[in-house]
């Protein structure tokens, strides 16, 4: 049996060929629905944290999606200070997929591109479900790879978005990202390091800081109706307290992670299970409500192995049409 070896550049070419946001989000949604039907095997994620302050870590994320006939494991490192200290990406690793009839490995692919695309895709699906109707202004706080992927996927998923505002802790990095996003079919505006101004009047706010100190203030969200939390401790405790609903990808996994804001609040006894409105699977399965009227929804995805498997399978199918595609007997 052939084991396909797929590099980051091949994955990028596979995505860039069509930028099929509807196909990608359907793959993600179907995986959540499979989870809701009990068709997913999801062992606990194993994290080895080497520095509590920076949250340098390596994660091992196994999962099986039975309807796809695939089992996978992602071995991925997250070192937030890599870009500034070592001029290398903060996320790296490998994804291995095996089919579950014989157990043979069918694919090994770069995990950094997979992780970036999967993370943004889950938030893009959440935005389709929970963003206010006709949302036009999107603010992204952060200037790294996750900010780049979120800008692209949100602009594709929400066709009413006409303005994307970029701001971060370093003004020069914001300017670079704005320039890099000039290909998007909407206005991309540089707000430098004035993050408060970038949030003023926004319909949707996303933080992609990967920091361990809160930068988003609750009173910056006077107009926003959807906040997507991507990284670690990025928002003050008053932000989730301000929200009308908190929705997660999977609260039972997220609450024990320690790094995200609402996980910190849970560990400190400041937030309980009853404060979580729903998991996204419950909304997709019509067990819980999504948006109801003019409310602020706080969405936090911790990242789930079975979504990695689903997105990896989707990318693998599309990578086969890329000339640089390779395999090993």
Description:
The chain is α/β, with parallel strands linked by helices. It has two domains: 135 residues, ornithine cyclodeaminase, domain 1, CATH 3.30.1780; 172 residues, Rossmann fold, CATH 3.40.50.720. It is built from twelve helices and 18 strands. Strands 1, 2, 3, 4, 5, 6, 7 and 18 form an eight-stranded mixed beta sheet that branches. Strand 3 and strand 4 form a beta hairpin. The longest helix has 20 residues. 48% of the residues are buried. The mean pLDDT is 93.
- Please bin the fraction of helical residues: 25-40%
CATH topology of the largest domain: Rossmann fold
Q: Which class of secondary structure composition applies to the elements?
A: alpha/beta
Compute the number of structural domains: 2
Broad shape? globular
Q: What string gives the helices and strands in order?
A: EHHEEEEHEEHEHEHEHEEEEHEHHEHEHE
Please report which band the strand proportion falls in: under 5%, 5-15%, 15-25%, 25-35%, 35-45% or over 45%: 25-35%
Secondary-structure blueprint:
Blueprint lengths: L2 E4 L1 H11 L2 H16 L3 E2 L4 E6 L4 E10 L4 E9 L3 H5 L4 E9 L5 E6 H20 L6 E5 L3 H13 L5 E5 L3 H10 L6 E4 L4 H5 L4 E4 L4 E5 L9 E4 L3 E3 L2 H5 L2 E4 L2 H4 L6 H7 L10 E2 H5 L12 E4 L4 H15 L6 E3 L1
Parallel strand pairs: 1-7, 8-9, 8-11, 9-10, 11-13, 12-14, 13-17, 15-16, 15-17
Antiparallel strand pairs: 1-18, 2-4, 3-4, 4-5, 5-6, 6-7
């Amino acid at each position: 049996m052939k084991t396909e070896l797929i590099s980051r550049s091949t994955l990028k070419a596979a995505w860039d060929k069509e930028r099929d946001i509807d196909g990608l989000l359907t793959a993600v949604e179907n995986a959540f629905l499979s989870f809701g039907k009990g068709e997913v095997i999801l062992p606990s994620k194993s994290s080895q944290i080497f520095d509590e302050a920076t949250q340098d870590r390596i994660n091992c994320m196994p999962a099986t999606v039975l309807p796809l006939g695939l089992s996978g494991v992602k071995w991925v490192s997250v070192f937030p200070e890599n870009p500034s200290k070592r001029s290398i990406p903060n996320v790296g690793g490998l994804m291995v997929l095996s089919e579950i009839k014989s157990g043979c490995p069918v694919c090994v692919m770069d995990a950094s591109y997979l992780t970036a695309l999967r993370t943004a895709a889950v938030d893009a699906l959440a935005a389709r479900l929970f963003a206010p109707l006709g949302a036009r202004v999107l603010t992204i706080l952060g200037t790294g790879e996750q900010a780049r992927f979120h800008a692209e996927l949100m602009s594709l998923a929400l066709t009413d978005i006409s303005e994307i505002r970029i701001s971060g802790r370093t003004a020069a990095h914001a300017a670079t990202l704005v320039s890099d996003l000039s290909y998007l079919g909407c206005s991309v505006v540089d707000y430098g390091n004035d993050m408060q101004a970038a949030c003023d009047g926004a319909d949707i706010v996303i933080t992609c800081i990967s920091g361990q100190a809160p930068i988003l203030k609750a009173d910056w969200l006077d107009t926003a109706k959807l906040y997507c939390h991507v990284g670690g401790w990025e928002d003050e405790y008053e932000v989730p307290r301000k929200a009308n609903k908190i929705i997660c990808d999977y609260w039972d996994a997220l609450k024990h992670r320690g790094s995200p804001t609402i996980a910190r609040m849970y560990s400190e006894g400041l937030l309980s299970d009853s404060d979580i409105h729903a998991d996204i699977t419950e909304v997709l399965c019509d067990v819980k409500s999504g948006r109801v009227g003019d409310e602020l929804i706080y969405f936090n995805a911790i990242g789930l192995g079975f979504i990695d498997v689903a997105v990896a399978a989707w990318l693998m199918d599309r990578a086969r049409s890329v000339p640089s595609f390779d395999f090993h007997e």
